[in-house]
Amino acid sequence: MRTFFVKESPSTSPLPSPPHRHTFSESLIDENLETAQLLISKWDTSSSDYLHITSLFSAHNRPEAEHYLNSIKQLQSMMQYYVSENPTSEKLVRAQRLMQTAMKRLEKEFYQILKSNKEHLDPESVSGRSSRESTSSKSVSEDEAEKDNNSRLGDEVPEVESASMAAMTDLKAIADCMIGSGYGIECVKIYKIIRRSIIDEAFYHLGVERFTSSQIQKMDWEVLDSRIKHWLNAAKIAVRTLFYGERILCDHVFSASLSIRESCFMDTTREAASTLFGFPENVSKCKRAPEKMFSTLDLYETISDLWPEIEAIFDFESSSGIRTQVINSMVKLGEAVRAILTHFETAISKDNSKVFPGGGIHPLTRYVMNYISFLAEYNGALTDIVANWPLNVPSPLPSSYFGSPETDDNASSAISLRFGWLILVLLCKLDVIATLYKEVALSYLFLANNLQYVVNKVCTSSLKVLLGDDWMNKHDAKVRQYAANYELMGWSRVAAALPQSSAAEIPLNEVKGCFLRFNSAFEEAYKKQSSWVVKDPKLRDEIKISVAKKIVPVYREFYDKYRSVMRREIGRESIVRFAPEDSENYLSDLLHASEGPGSVSSTSSAASGRS
């Protein structure tokens, strides 16, 4: 009721309000009260059992539901009027009772919608709805929201999503009405109980369990590794579907109140989030061992990938504990990775492996390079982890020795340097193992074999990008140097048995001596090297071709020149045991890992017959 005032003068007094205006307003309000009572009483849950199972917000009752909510708004205005005009009015008491009846009805409707629409309000359906609209949590006006929802319901959308949109619209309308009427506590209580049970049920189906640090550390590694793999999948679903969908639903239903949104969302998700994000930190406290590296990195990588979404979903002030827990998990996992890397490096250095038969690829080389090449697939996560972790080299070595590509990115340079260093530690260990071979030629063949395997692994993995072409070229050249040293130490005695020049005439005795020395040296070299191997086909062919070029042409020239001279010696002894073709065949037979050694004495009769 509006009161009019005029300026008071000494001879006048204030004019009274027109009596008919007051009477008109009061009669209209009384009429509205009667209308509200008819509608509210109609849906009074205590008046009929039928009303307990009938929803005011069902499709065919929707116009009446809107009228019902408007009646509550009018009833609230009436109560304010009666309080201002006559606080002791019987009509005020009547209006208050009607409000209580209406709130009980809305409580029931709110509960029923949440309970009966579980499949429509599951996080996936809510997330699907959100994909059609902005994910911003800012509130829009009620009219705009209603207009938007009506427009969307008119579009062609999946049935489940349409039902989800309708349920969310009804929940928001009821929540706005109850909060506006001072019954927000009752509304929030129902929401928290039902939605928390849905979250708990979803976590149960995801297989997420709460484990203490002690329980995790007592698990066998196979069991824990299986739990980790399960967690990786569950975490993505929980964050991108479960928590995200719950945040969307909460923001929509309680858009009228930021504090209620925050309270509902956190009370609904806090325990589940704590269970989910506490697992990685507990895993990080387990005993550090190389076999745990990749599962630890999987955890770090998953959390790191999910962090932007986690930060956006849990952006309330009261959710700072959740954000801190996630950050702590990443920090602890990073520390665990660094500790495992240190343990891995130490394990390489302290390996007490013996020589490998035949100078082939050592099991340590295979293990370390397979490990490192697989590790390189995590270079993104490792770049973050080792960025501020200095490499402590025990002795001053030039960086070019273990190499890293030139880059302006310090973080990328750090991880490249780290991989280069780990490979250097392996190569140093291989140098030590090589000294255990009795044959110097075999030690060089061993180094050539193993370094070639290292180079191949780098070339066929992500390590190539990390270490760069310069590293590849330097170590490839080193393989060739090892191979050349093998040739020198393994075949120099054979080459020295032949004269340096075939132009000069050589006495018969000297010719005989050359053949005998060649026979002895070649047979000894072949027998000694018959079990030696070169696994890389390209390197094997290069070595055999190089050895053949150094021996066969010189021997063929000598053989062709003096074979006829030595024929008279056939009756007494076999002076010429190898034809040039035989020597080529024997050389071709060497260094094959899958082939057994031949016998020089059993295969040389043909050459003897031709001599």
Description:
- Residues 229-589 form the Exocyst complex subunit Exo70 C-terminal domain.
- Helix 8 runs parallel beside helix 11 (258-284).
- Helix content is 71%, strand content 0%.
- It is an all-alpha fold and 611 residues long.
What secondary-structure arrangement, pairings included, does this model have?
Layout: H1 19-42, H2 50-53, H3 62-85, H4 90-116, H5 123-130, H6 142-154, H7 159-180, H8 184-206, H9 213-218, H10 221-253, H11 258-284, H12 293-313, H13 320-349, H14 363-375, H15 379-386, H16 399-402, H17 410-434, H18 440-459, H19 463-496, H20 508-529, H21 537-562, H22 580-589, H23 600-603, H24 605-610
Number of helices: 24
Rounded average pLDDT = 81
Largest sheet: none
Number of strands: 0
Low-pLDDT segments, ≥5 res: 1-24, 134-145, 151-156, 595-611
What structural class do helix, strand and pairing data support? mainly alpha
Quaternary organisation: single chain
How far apart are the first and last residues' alpha carbons, in Å? 136 Å
SSE run: HHHHHHHHHHHHHHHHHHHHHHHH
Helix content: over 70%
General shape: rod-shaped
Region (Disordered): 1-21, 121-158, 591-611
Function: Component of the exocyst complex.
InterPro entries: Cullin_repeat-like_dom_sf, Exo70, Exo70_C
Keywords: Exocytosis, Protein transport, Transport
